[in-house]
Amino acid sequence: MAKKSTPIEVVCPCCQSKLVIDSELAAVLSHTPPPKTAPDVDISDAARILAEQARRREDKFRESWEAENKKEDVLARKFEEGLKKAREGPAEKPVRDFDLE
Predict the structure, then answer these.
(1) Could you tell me which residues are beta bridge partners of residue 79?
(2) Half-sphere exposure in the Cβ direction for 19 (13 Å, CA)
(3) Distance CA 32, CA 15 (A)
(4) In what order do the strands lie in the sheet with 27-32?
(5) Is the entire prediction scored with pTM above 0.90?
(6) pLDDT tens across the length of the chain (101 residues)
(7) CB-CB contact of 17 with 11 (8 Å)
(8) How many CB atoms lie within 10 A of CB 21?
(9) Neighbour count for residue 3 (Cβ, 10 Å)
(10) E strand or H helix at 63, and its extent?
(11) How does strand 18-22 pair with strand 8-11?
């Protein structure tokens, strides 16, 4: 039976995660992820960030509103274009998969 050695606790200098390593087996026994930090936001920037988000929301809403207003015209033009192509081109019998074999 192998004798038990005491595990080594190591803290990563980069990310501050904790590892428990068995030196005899050369294996990591457990891993504790680093503590999560809050985003580094200055309070004086909060008003600017909120204003920027509000501006983006308004821009998206305005674009959506304009697209909805133009929707009827776009559909009418697409229908006219499709009708024009249907009148110009000859009506052909559609090709089915089993006709090709």
Answers:
(1) none
(2) 12
(3) 11
(4) 8-11, 18-22, 27-32
(5) no
(6) 556 778 899 998 888 899 998 888 888 889 899 888 877 777 888 888 899 999 999 999 999 999 999 999 989 999 999 888 888 877 777 777 776 76
(7) yes
(8) 16
(9) 5
(10) helix 43-88
(11) antiparallel
